[in-house]
Structures are given as C-alpha cells and as structure tokens.
Amino acid sequence: MPILAAVAGTRSEDPVVSVGYDLATAYGDDLIVLNVVPEEEFEAHREEIQRIDEFRDYSFTQEEESAATISERVVDTTLAAYEPETVETVGRIGSPDEEILTVASTVDATYIVVGGRKRSPVGKALFGSTTQAVLLNADRPVVTVMQERE
C-alpha cells in the first residue's frame, strides 16, 4: 500500500514530501504525491487563458496534468539527492480535503501525509483548514508536518 503525500501550491521544496518519502522507504511502499487545485482556481485559470486567446479552451484534464507537473517539480526539488524510483505524481481538481481522502481511499494508502501551520484559535474558526478536515474525516492514519506560517 502506498503513502500519500499532499502538497499545495508551487513551493519548490516541501517537507511533506520528505516525510512521505521517509515513511515509504521505511515501509517499503511507493510514494504518491498529490496536488489538488481548488475548482475556483481552475475556473480562474480557464478564464485567464480565454481572456488572452478567446479561441483557446483550457480543459479539466490540462489542469490536472498541470497540477501533477507541480507535484513532480516539488518531488524533484525535495528529493534531488535520493533519485527516487517509486514516486508517482498526481493532480486533481476539487475540494482539497475531499480529493485527498478520495485518492487515499482509492489507492488504499497506508498513511496520509499533509502539511499544517500553527494558527490562532480565531484563525482556525474563521478559515477552513484542509489539514483539520483530513484529520477529522480520514479512515487511516494521518501524519501532519508542521510548517512555519507563510
């Protein structure tokens, strides 16, 4: 069963990938690195491309491929010293917490590895947290890698 590491954005290096790789190596499992693009971000990308070229369409599949490419870039940067052979990169579009849980279930992940940031109680109440939603709804162990505020 693989380890699922969920990354966000275009960060060049991500400790979530390092921890996921360490777990995969320790358990002799493959590592899947997932990047989820929220649907509203996809729609914004599509509108921007059509604004530039009204005859060009930007598909759901193209956005998922772009998200997977971002995952690949993060893996290449984070694990450059290791030259990993058993890492798969995946891109999805949708609600990040729902997509993380869906992919974890589909691949029957041993662990889900996600990033987290320290936030005040008010910040947690005002803003949704993908990490919190994954922790509360996962049916398998979740490893949270705490990161500095961005």
Automatic annotation (TrEMBL):
Signal peptide: none annotated. Residues 2-145 form the UspA domain. InterPro entries: Rossmann-like_a/b/a_fold (IPR014729), UspA (IPR006016). It holds the Pfam family Usp. Belongs to the universal stress protein A family. This is Universal stress protein. It comes from Halomarina halobia.
